[in-house]
Amino acid sequence: MKVMSLEILEKSDTKLVFVVDGISIEMVNAIRRIIISEIPVMAIDEVIILKNDSPLYDEIIAHRLGLIPLTTDLDVYKLPRDCECGGYGCPLCQVSLTCEVTNTSNTTMEIYSANLSSNDPKIVPVNPNIPLVKIDKNDKVIIEAYAVLGLAKDHVKYQAVSNIFYRFYPEIEFDSTKCTKCPDKCLVSRMCPEKLYDFSNKKTPILIEDYWKKCTLCNFCQNECPEKAIKVRWKENTYIFSIESDGVLSFEAIIKKTFEIFLEKIDEFIENLGEIEIES
Ligand SMILES: [Zn+2]
């Protein structure tokens, strides 16, 4: 059996790109689907507006609050439906965030996500500079909001990642000996959208070393090369996986939770399979 291998190409707080080898497309797609819709994430779900002098309706402010990405701690909090309180709201499933601002200046004032103060310092807006609403001088806004864990399959505000996709790992076979007879001054090197062929020496084009990072498998080179010197394929069971996050969870926490959910699903499948009577 082939062992799965993984190589990280790029990693920052907001982006993770890696090559995964030895995994079927069904598995890689199941992982993508779990990450996009089943990782629990904190978001504001209930808002009590005590005072709103701003020009925006209460509903619009509540909607804007719901879309503020909040840092999430999966070790402490539970989904309300799994909590011992029965989803009523307790310190294990709910965080309170309040915002009380009075404009004492002589000009209009902008209220930002930084003005939300949380009762848990671990659950705060990921970015303090998200504009919420503007208020005029002497105006006031008092809001009480409650954040809970939720799943993106129920509402998109609970999505743990901003973007996630995988693509096939390109493999190009390039026989440059065929180029000597070519009447064209390398059409492919001029036209390749990703500039994968270097023809700066004006003798023979060279396929750049890390072509696989950029190649989008458009097959232009294979189809248009007059000498048929290029063959484009993709490597079986190897994928380039890319995840972008707004920072609600670390990538480590996302991957760990993904496999916890994956294993739970397999257990559930086996359990349900045992209950099915198969006619022979
Ligand atoms: Zn609870």
In words, what does this structure look like?
- By secondary structure, the chain is of the alpha+beta class.
- It has 2 domains: 113 residues, RNA polymerase, RBP11-like subunit (Gyrase A, domain 2), CATH 3.30.1360.10; 118 residues, RNA Polymerase Alpha Subunit, Chain A, domain 2 (Beta Complex), CATH 2.170.120.12.
- The protein has 6 helices and 12 strands.
- It has a 4-stranded antiparallel β-sheet with strand order 1-2-12-9.
- The protein is flat.
- Bound molecules: zinc ion.
Short description:
The chain is an alpha+beta fold and 280 residues long.
List the helices and strands and how they pair.
Layout: E1 5-11, E2 15-21, H1 25-37, E3 41-52, H2 58-66, E4 95-102, E5 109-112, E6 117-118, E7 131-135, E8 140-150, E9 163-174, H3 187-191, E10 197-198, E11 206-207, H4 211-214, H5 220-224, E12 230-244, H6 251-275
Antiparallel strand pairs: 1-2, 2-12, 3-8, 4-6, 4-8, 5-7, 9-12, 10-11
Bound molecules: zinc ion (ZN).
Residues 83, 85, 90, 92-93 line the site of zinc ion.
